[in-house]
Design goal:
This protein is an alpha/beta fold and 562 residues long. It has helices at residues 3-10, 26-39, 52-59, 63-76, 197-210, 225-239, 254-263, 279-287, 311-314, 338-351, 408-415, 424-435, 438-464, 488-497, 530-543, and strands at 79-82, 86-89, 168-170, 173-175, 183-184, 248-251, 271-273, 292-294, 297-298, 301-302, 321-324, 354-358, 382-387, 399-402, 469-471, 478-482, 500-501, 503-504, 520-524.
Length: 562
């Protein structure tokens, strides 16, 4: 399919996560995936499906394949198709009752009725589609990013930037800026100039007009039912999450969720974590008295295969929870592969614990198929957390926790009798924004914009700094530039003097990490306004170190310099 056709197809319509069988005719696989999504209730009656061109682009199949599958399901009565209304799930289709998951090694599109091998949940990054010229999406090429310094309450999703106006973070920690910031290339921030002002204002007006009177009474700590219902449908359709609205608790972002879970006494430490992450989040946990124990990391993702044998985790008083970023490891960039996902869930079951799934930017992927949520493997042992801080704006303080049923009341008790963190107006507006399809449209538009920015970053570096490799770019809003050993701190300093705000990799490494230090820069290509992006890349290139003088460089199995 020509690239221009793929791009235009992706600009319209809503997202839809399907698990397809890797064998057999593609039309049959698409039809079977859709039947299962409808039968399981993940696609509710009346749900509008994306245009066939859009879904074909996402699945990497021919348009006629999806069109024929749609026609087949219309003929069978699963779907309806009307001129001007699109293709929808037929109203008379009744979802089958859901059962609890029995084995995470057998996963289907009904997350609670597992039938498909988890090898097919995600595309192995070793076989991912090749990105821009000279770019690899192999998760062996590890990346990293974020700084974790904040000037506000810091209630953001993983990867939020939170850098104060008067501080700079580099390999050596926080320090005063050497120069005023001219070019902001910090990771974790969406382009503020692209906020959908008109569409959001429309959503606010419609939500206020339709709001019941009780919406303006003291707020329910669960969150507005309109938003929880919209989120349940959206997360099932796009991320493969299995939940009822009653399992969803609205919060003010990922950090707020951490505070409720650990500061509120719902969960206790120690907590197993990935070897790279936000220092700010570790600070929240430390304030709650929670010790974090870092796992290792390799080309398959976090070493969840060692959860059961790690002495600090597997002991009687060891960890009963693990915090992971499975769709796009933060900050290294690769997905957690299926076997490691299953091992994490197996461990949580055997331990009587939970997996905390931080899905901070799962909607932004470019050179690989969508990766479904781990929560679908076992909703009783996974806490799924997300927010709109990357997809919409960190200024809209809205996030969500999809909780195992046995944790809902404890989280509500920690939150209090009344909602004190998020406003009803924003909750109702977001519900309308999702239900109207405008949220899908915005995410698709920004996905294309960020993909173009990523490609420009890669092309610019290939031309002006070919000795600097770019990694971790198959998804997300940032890239990692691999640097020669021993050059990270000086490069961060040079960038600061040139007015370029960015972060070094060392800032995100857990102090007790078993992983050796890797020199690199974290570059947020989503952050600058469109008209400031090229000048920012020019300033970045001028701050980069020159090539090493020796003829060859050594790299370890991760693709990062030794």
């Amino acid at each position: 399919m020509p690239e221009s056709e793929v791009n235009s197809a992706r600009e319209a319509g809503s997202d839809l996560h399907l698990e397809l069988s890797p064998t057999g005719p593609r039309r049959a696989a698409v039809a079977a995936g859709l039947r299962e999504a409808v039968r399981s209730g993940r696609l509710a009656p009346g749900t509008r499906l994306p245009p066939y061109r859009s879904l074909a682009a996402d699945l990497g199949v021919a348009r006629n394949t999806v069109a024929d599958a749609y026609a087949e399901l219309v003929a069978e009565g699963w779907l309806t198709a009307r001129q001007g209304s699109g293709t929808r799930v037929a109203d008379r289709v009744t979802p089958r009752p859901k059962r609890a998951t029995t084995d995470p090694k057998h996963v289907a599109t009904d997350p609670k009725q597992a039938t498909t091998d988890p090898k097919h949940i995600a595309t192995d990054p070793k076989h991912a589609t090749t990105g821009p010229k000279g770019v690899t999406t192999d998760s062996k090429l590890l990346a990293a990013g974020s700084n974790g310094v904040t000037t506000d309450s810091g209630l953001g999703a993983a990867g939020s930037n939170g850098v104060g106006a008067g501080a700079e973070r580099g390999a050596g920690g926080i320090r005063e800026r050497a120069a005023a910031v001219v070019h902001n290339l910090r990771q974790g921030q969406p382009d503020a100039t692209s906020f959908p002002r008109t569409a959001w204002a429309t959503a606010v007006r419609r939500a206020m007009s339709a709001a019941p009177h009780d919406a303006f009474a003291p707020a329910d700590p669960r969150g507005r039912p309109e938003l929880r219902h919209a989120l349940a449908g959206y997360l099932a359709r796009v991320r493969g999450v299995s939940a009822t609205p009653d399992q969803i608790v609205v919060c003010a972002g990922f950090a707020h969720g951490l505070r409720l879970l650990f500061g509120g006494g719902v969960l206790s430490g120690p907590l197993a974590v990935e070897p790279y992450g936000l220092p700010f989040h570790r600070g929240i946990l430390a304030d709650a008295g929670v010790r974090t124990i870092p796992l290792g990391l390799d080309d398959r993702g976090a070493r969840t295969d060692r959860l059961s044998s790690h002495p600090g985790i597997s002991s009687r008083r060891g960890a009963r929870a693990v915090l992971l970023t499975p769709a796009h490891q933060f900050p290294t960039g690769g997905p957690l592969l299926p076997a490691r996902r299953a091992e994490a869930v197996d461990w949580a079951r055997g331990r009587g614990g939970v997996v905390l799934e931080d899905d901070y930017d799962g909607e932004f992927r470019y050179d690989r198929e969508p990766v479904g949520a781990v929560q679908g493997l076992d909703p009783d042992h996974v806490v799924y957390l997300g927010s709109v801080s990357k997809s919409l704006s960190p200024a809209i303080r809205l996030g969500w926790m999809v909780l195992p049923p046995h944790l809902v009341e404890a989280v509500l008790a920690a939150k209090g009798l009344r909602e004190a963190w998020t406003g009803v107006t924003d909750q109702l507006a977001l519900a309308e924004f999702i239900e109207s399809g405008r949220y899908d449209k915005h995410v698709r538009r920004m996905r294309q914009s960020y993909r173009a920015r990523r490609n420009l970053l890669v092309a610019t570096l290939a031309e002006r700094a070919p000795h600097v490799a770019v990694t971790g770019i198959a998804a997300g809003l940032h890239a990692v530039l691999r640097l020669p050993p021993g050059t990270e701190a000086a490069t961060v300093e040079a960038a600061a003097r040139a007015g370029v705000a960015l972060d070094g990799l060392a800032a995100f490494r857990h102090p007790d990490s078993p992983e050796p230090h890797r020199d690199g820069l974290v570059v947020g290509y989503s952050t600058p306004a469109e008209h400031r992006y090229r000048p920012a890349l020019d300033a970045l290139c001028r701050a980069l170190p020159p090539p090493l003088q020796r003829s060859a460089r050594a790299f370890d199995h991760t693709g990062l310099s030794k």
